[in-house]
Amino acid sequence: MSEYINRRFGPIELQEELSKLISQYNTLRETYLLIYAAATEKPIPDSSLVQSDFYKIRDLLSSQKGRPKVDVYIETRGGSGETAEEIVRFLHDNFDTVSFVVCGEAKSAGTIIVLSGNEILMTETGSLGPIDAQIKVGRSVVSAYDYMEWVEEKREEAKEKDTLNPFDAKMIAQISPGELGAAFHAMKFAEDLVVDWLPKYKFKNWNITETQKLPVTDEMKVSRARDIATKLIGRTKWRSHGRSIKIPDLESEDIKLRIVHVDDNPELAETVYRIQTVFHLLFDNTAIYKIFATQDHKIFKQAVMVGPPIRIPTGKQPDVVKIEQQCPKCGVKHRIYAMFAPNPQIDSDCRKKGLTPFPKDAKIKCACGFEIDLVGIKNQVEVVSGRKIILANEKENGQKANSGKRENAADLSEKN
User: Which of 59, 5, 53 is nearest to 280 (CA)?
Assistant: First the structure.
């Protein structure tokens, strides 16, 4: 990270570096890499795995159908299990070998996706997580496993004592059969996916047992998959839905899942760690919160910044609006002016007051290094005013045009 910071890599340079690193990875692995990474620390609801992510992944890889191999670098806190299912189905329907690379977090639905891989590549820093589904109960989001376990405990308690304490009785009375059914099916959905996918993909070439050298049957594969799913759902061991499950946990006697150690290949490890560093710098210094990238194409999802409500006076509308935008990283306030019509006098007055013209790329580079995207504010101003902001290059052209008109007018009067 310090190397990129010292070399003063901005968003453009970081994007170019990402393309270079993806190509490097593809050469080392003889594959085609897709990066799906979300900023896990940004409080944006859409940063979780959602259905629109599937469509973007499908679009980016559709032109590569028929390739023997595809690798997917995944970093996510989780999200929709149904979306996870669609992504996995698409990948395995169109590529012979699908491998997943984990250098950061691939939790919850991310773990479910990773477990569908023919290969799972992980660095020492990579982690999976428990696969218990999260459901909404009332105003809270809770673990389906915890919810069902608590209900079962109270059921047993009521059977033994023929009563419940008033608090528990009140809580139980608020539970509908629909909520119980939703919790049960959400929990079983994750388990069923893992039990289906592990034998079909991860255990595809597991034909002989490692110690006794016995033939591996389909029943053995399913039994092993069910055991792994049960271990990853249960909260007795992991305690927390956010718990990080590392390589030693996955390879332990409890789970016995074979992992490819990225760190054993120094050149590959260097490339993978650099990929992670580059997109983390993009997350830290821009409004980007989700990245979809291959060596050929990139899609960046950005949080649109919207300032306080814009108030445009009724009647004759002004030709300029003043905007104050605070940097979300360091808190510095940037004072900007946006013009709706070329006017050199307004331009000059605003600059004298220390205001900056609205940038032509709708982006401000703060002194702290953060790139502030003003597209959301631009859209808001234009919608409220019903007028289009003139950007810096358009303004210059407009002023030249006005100057030309004045010269033409002067010429005509002299001739007359």
Answer: 5
